[in-house]
Write a structure and sequence with these properties.
The chain has 397 residues and is an alpha/beta fold. It has 4 domains: 151 residues, P-loop containing nucleotide triphosphate hydrolases (Rossmann fold, 3-Layer(aba) Sandwich), CATH 3.40.50.300; 61 residues, Helicase, Ruva Protein, domain 3 (Orthogonal Bundle); 90 residues, no CATH class; 66 residues. Helix content is 55%, strand content 8%. Helix 7 packs across helix 8, helix 10 crosses helix 14 and helix 12 runs antiparallel to helix 13. The longest helix has 27 residues.
Length: 397
């Protein structure tokens, strides 16, 4: 099981490094009817515990939790209809209820016009506590929301707190670790505990975690790793987090196709899920071919949507097992073929220069030169063409 799921906080005491804001949030929920403001807006960097804190408090206080991701309902009518319905219904067995609107800052000011006002109207007549989360809620389009919400900031976590949590998990999982490795990873994630848990699980295969294992992780933002991107695409409960998974990936698009193709069968285990996912992958490849032929780069939008939201939506349910994502060997084979072809072209260019022929003509003569070298008669030719040892060896194979 993923560490992010297995070690999600079950109560307020298990939440890392946010004691003050958790006390304020707990008071808001427990004394909701006495509050001046009818909603709380939790904001701060990713991976600091905003959403998991709401889940933990709901469980601790025995509240039912109804979650809406803002990317699922994007316009005023849909957002208002959902919230009015949710806020007007009692929970099962008449337990108190929390309405969670996650990632409210995903709402666009143009495409989703009216969605924020629908949230504000629903909050004003709510009989239940409404909690919203955002990374950055200070855009001008959220001014009306700020006025009706209790603003609660989740600070970026100190690396020492993250390191302590990682060591605790290593002990529970019986993972042997080096202090240097834990401390380096804790600093590297820049306050993102969720990313730290994912990276720890990736690097501790075989129940060992050393500083050498961190070589597989570059000093980069968490979302810029292909491993992080695949986790978002394959593991997200909704398509909205997956949509931006490839935005900051420093990787050739063809390599992204290969990574997804290699790891998809490990994640999606049912025939129907695999069939739908590969259908999206195939359609993305069709658009990629159209870009190569027509240079119509607008098709990149379709490719991104198919590779992220398309493949993410293909699964029937989230696979809770931890999967070790690995690159395909096809990349290595393509690189080897490229290197082999590069040597051939370099030798042909020298032959063309010496014989005053075209590059194409010289390439046609390479098999004859290989035959000469393989019989051990290529020494003078190597001197004449000024071939390196590697090039001479290649012709002799």
């Amino acid at each position: 099981m993923l560490f992010t799921i297995k070690y999600a906080p079950q109560n307020s005491s298990q939440i890392v490094g946010q004691q003050k804001v958790i006390m304020e949030l707990k008071d808001f929920i427990q004394n909701y009817r006495k509050q001046k403001k009818k909603a709380a807006l939790l904001y701060g960097p990713i991976g600091t515990g905003k959403t998991s804190s709401v889940y933990a408090l709901a469980q601790e206080l025995q509240f039912d939790l109804l979650e809406l991701n803002s990317s699922d309902l994007r316009n005023e009518k849909e957002m208002g209809s959902f919230l009015n319905s949710a806020l007007g219904q009692h929970s099962l067995f008449f337990r108190p209820k929390i309405i969670l609107v996650d990632e409210i800052d995903n709402v666009s000011g143009v495409k989703d016009r009216g969605a924020v006002s629908a949230v504000v109207k629903a909050i004003e007549k709510s009989s239940f506590p409404v909690i919203l989360t955002a990374n950055d809620p200070f855009d001008s389009k959220f001014k009306s929301l700020q006025k009706c919400c209790l603003m609660l900031e989740f600070a970026k976590l100190d690396y020492s707190l993250i390191g302590s949590k990682l060591k605790t998990i290593c002990d529970l999982e019986q993972i042997k670790f080096e202090d240097k490795a834990i401390n380096t990873l804790a600093r590297q994630v820049d306050g993102d505990l969720r990313a730290a848990l994912i990276d720890l699980q990736i690097c501790s295969e075989g129940n060992n975690f050393s500083f050498v294992d961190l070589a597989s992780l570059s000093d980069r933002k968490r979302t810029e790793s292909i491993l992080q991107a695949l986790t978002l695409i394959f593991k997200s409960s909704t398509v909205s987090p997956a949509l931006s998974a490839l935005d900051n990936i420093d990787l050739d698009l063809n390599e992204v196709f290969l990574w997804i193709d290699e790891n998809l069968p490990k994640e999606y285990l049912t025939p129907d899920s695999l069939s739908r996912a590969y259908e999206h992958l195939a359609r993305a490849d069709v658009f990629n071919g159209r870009i190569r032929r027509s240079q119509h780069w607008r098709f990149l939008v379709y490719i991104n949507n198919l590779l992220t939201a398309g493949i993410s939506s293909a699964k029937e349910s989230k696979n809770s097992q931890f999967i070790q994502y690995k690159p395909t060997m096809r990349i290595l084979k393509l690189w080897q073929a490229k290197m082999k072809n590069a040597k051939k072209k370099e030798i042909a260019s020298r032959l063309a220069l010496k014989t005053h022929t075209s590059q194409k003509r010289a390439l046609e003569q390479i098999p004859y030169f290989q035959s000469i070298f393989q019989k051990g008669h290529g020494e003078k030719i190597a001197l004449e063409l000024e071939l390196s040892e590697e090039e001479t060896e290649w012709l002799s194979q």
